[in-house]
Amino acid sequence: MNNKYFIQTYGCQMNLHESEKLAGMLKQAGYVACETPEQAGIIIYVTCCIRENAEQKVYGHLGALKPYKMKNRDVIVAVGGCMTQQEGAAQKLHSTFPFVDIIFGTHNLCEFMSLLEKKRNQKKKVIEITEKWSESECIPMARNSYPNAWVNVIYGCNNFCTYCIVPYVRGREKSRKIADVVSEVKELIAQGYKEITLLGQNVNSYGNDILGEEGAGDFADLLDAICEQVKGDYRLRFMSNHPKDLTERLVMAMARNKNVCHLIHLPLQSGSNKVLKEMNRRYTREQYLEKVALIKKHMPDCAISTDVMVGFPGESESDYEDTLDIMQRVNFSAAFMFVYSPREGTPAAKRPDQIDAEISKARIMKMVALQNARTAEYSKTYEGKTIQILCEDYDKKRDLYMGRDEYGRMGYFTSDKNEIGNFVNIKVGKTNGISLYGEKI
Ligand code: SAH
Ligand code: SF4
Ligand code: F3S
Questions:
Q1: For 12-16, 126-130, 195-199, 298-302, which range has the lowest pLDDT when averaged over its residues?
Q2: Ligand nearest to the backbone CA of 19
Q3: Model confidence pLDDT, tens digit, residues 304-324
Q4: d(CA 267, CA 201)
């Protein structure tokens, strides 16, 4: 039997982390990772459905896999992740790609090994999509993002922004206990990890669902607990924040705990009050700017990054200008910019006033150009400065080591020894767009 596995992951950090859990279970059972699907005995796709193009990619790759699977019938092909959890999606996958052996939902990840066994025993296709969250956490994990490690703090989402599919495919909010998160972080730091990224769709609502239970607290309490109980030279990051739930308590906890990086990812989505209301974001542009001011009050150096969207149904030219206006005022250190993509089953997808693709395209292009210019300008302010970066990888193409500073900026440098996992001071020389190039000092 071919005991090699190949996992292809699409989508966000949550999914990358879920793939580490799958890899951990497979490794424990004696399987080994391989580089391409054509070498593997088990091929797993961990999918995303946040925008249509995310789904198209999965369909494309699955289609391309068909000839290989037809020639190698013993190879097991499995599809999991957010796409499978959408209503009717498993059936659609099943009929479009009948050669897929296992389809498993987002809540069935930890059962993967038993689904695999079931498939091997019964020879029939296995489809397992559970609606309800199961309590089990899967361990061990085969992490592959050293020196960073991802740690889930809250699963699911309760917000139901009108454009977003996540609450339908990830279920309701479920927080882990402070003590469980702290002990996971403690172990990771003891193993030598240098950066911990706490994950949640909205970390600011961490703890709400377990309020009053023993050992519960909010996200500020969680940051305090980690920093008090886990000492050492490491960085603590987290994402994402929701502007409606970001509190001064949290900003103060960030400011007082030295391990916490001064970077907040605070998705704006739109700068228009009309659009924000229709998105069900539950804040106004004024309130968003107040949160920004609050962050700057306690941490004047704090970088703020964001997600924004163009082409939400009914978005007028002046709504769009309002978004550009906030982007200019806040001067985001980075912005992930998206064209709205209708997601079946969400309220916004049913609206008759969808925006013409050509209009959205023009809007996104102008927005990206403006943000790129701003980012390049911001990079220039780094020239001549010395920054500390955590070396995370070696870029073969550029023949340079790379890593980020506290604020998330990517710096490149040369070294004659392996620097991955080291904190390195570099003096920034030239800059190019978002990238900084420096000399190790
Ligand atoms: N939970 C996170 C975001 C998860 S999705 C948060 O609320 O910040 C990441 C980003 O994808 C969102 O911030 C949003 O900008 C974008 N997004 C979500 N649904 C989308 C859709 N239907 N079309 C286009 N972009 C979308
Ligand atoms: Fe989606 Fe909104 Fe939840 Fe983020 S907060 S995952 S955008 S519903
Ligand atoms: Fe993430 Fe995509 Fe799911 S963004 S939560 S993998 S829909």
A1: 126-130
A2: 3
A3: 999 999 999 999 999 999 999
A4: 11
pLDDT of residue 441: 92
Q: Tell whether the torsion through CA atoms of 184, 190, 191 and 197 is positive or negative.
A: positive
pLDDT confidence band for 135 (50 / 70 / 90): low
H or E, element range at 432:
strand 423-432
Residue 13 has pLDDT above 70, yes or no: yes
Q: Which two tokens stand for residue 262?
A: 């001064």
Beta strand extents in 205-347 (DSSP E only): 235-239, 263-265, 303-310, 334-339
Counting residues of the chain whose pLDDT is more than 90, the rounded percentage is: 95
Query: Is 0.90 topped by the overall pTM?
Result: yes
Establish whether residue 11 lines the binding site of ligand 3, counting it when its CB lies within 6 angstroms of any ligand atom. yes
Place of tokens 């886990």: 230
Distance 49 CA to ligand 3 centre (A): 6
Measured in Å, residue 341 CA sits from the centre of ligand 2 at 14
Cα-to-centroid distance, 76 and ligand 2 (Å): 33
Domains in the chain, please, with CATH? 4-128 (3.40.50.12160), 145-257 (3.30.750.210), 262-380 (3.30.750.200), 386-440 (2.40.50)
Q: Please, which residues have CB within 8 angstroms of residue 270's CB and are 6 or more apart in sequence? A: 276, 279, 281, 308, 309, 312, 315, 319, 322, 323
**Ligand 1 within 6 A of CB of 269:** yes
Q: Is the CB of 259 under 6 A from ligand 1?
A: no
Question: DSSP characters for 213-234?
Answer: STT---HHHHHHHHHHH--SS-
What is the number of the ligand 3 atom nearest to the C-alpha of 170? 5
CA quadruple 406, 408, 414, 417: dihedral, nearest 10: 60
Residue 240, ligand 1, Cβ within 6 A: yes
Strands (DSSP E) contained in 174-325 are: 174-175, 195-199, 235-239, 263-265, 303-310
Residue 136 scores a pLDDT above 70: no
Between CA 304 and CA 175 the distance in angstroms is: 25
- Whose CA is closest to 309, among 343, 281, 271, 354? 271
In this prediction, residue 315 carries a pLDDT of 98
pLDDT digits 0-9 by tens, 215-224:
899 999 999 9
Which residue has the least CA distance to atom 1 on ligand 1?
A: 201
Phi, then psi, of 379 in degrees rounded to 5: -60, -40
Ligand 1 center–CA 337 separation, angstroms: 10
Which of 201, 205, 241 has the most ligand 2 atoms within 8 A of CB, as the residue to mutate? 201
